[in-house]
Amino acid sequence: MTERAELVDALNIAFAQKYHSMAQFVLDAEPYVKPGREGLLAAIRDVADMDQRAAGQIADAIEQLEGIAQPGTGDPSLAAYHYLDLDFLASTLADALEQQKSYYGAMRQRFGSGQDAEAIFSLLGSVTEEQISRLQKARS
């Protein structure tokens, strides 16, 4: 497999992570929101919006490499998270974002020799770091 094909595969993993936004899932899961935690819900809505924009940027990067953006399927185990407490879901979302950030860092190192690859994985790392920061502020 060529490095370009490996890069497209790596970008498709990132695309699936953002396309099947866990933050959007949390919003759609109708979580239990305790009084006074509406700010956390708004922060999660911001994270979901950022995921949507990032998915578009990743799809553009894949197309520039003459690849096809393939979102795959979402994680069916997330169905067990419906109607749960928002704070629990926010914690789960924060863990997922930390895993994504680690993946983007590893892929930045793996494909760092290519300027386009470094740029997109650096951007994804920055976006995800901002998402984590917003969640942390809203959770405290």
Present the secondary structure layout.
Elements: H1 3-19, H2 22-28, H3 38-64, H4 86-110, H5 115-139
Helix pairs in contact: 1-3, 2-3, 3-5, 4-5
Descriptive report:
This protein has helices spanning 3-19, 22-28, 38-64, 86-110, 115-139. The protein has 140 residues and is mainly alpha-helical. Helix 1 (3-19) runs antiparallel to helix 3 (38-64) and helix 4 packs antiparallel against helix 5.
Keywords:
0% strand; elongated; 5 helices
Quote the beta fraction.
under 5%
Weakly predicted, low-confidence segments = none
Number of helices: 5
Element-by-element helix/strand order: HHHHH
Helix percentage range: over 70%
Strands, total number:
0
Whole-angstrom Rg: 16 Å
Q: What is the overall shape?
A: elongated
The average pLDDT value, as a whole number, equals: 93
Structural class: mainly alpha
Largest sheet: none
Intertermini distance: 46 Å
Concise synopsis of the structure shown:
With 140 residues, the protein is mainly α. 72% of the residues lie in helices and 0% in strands.
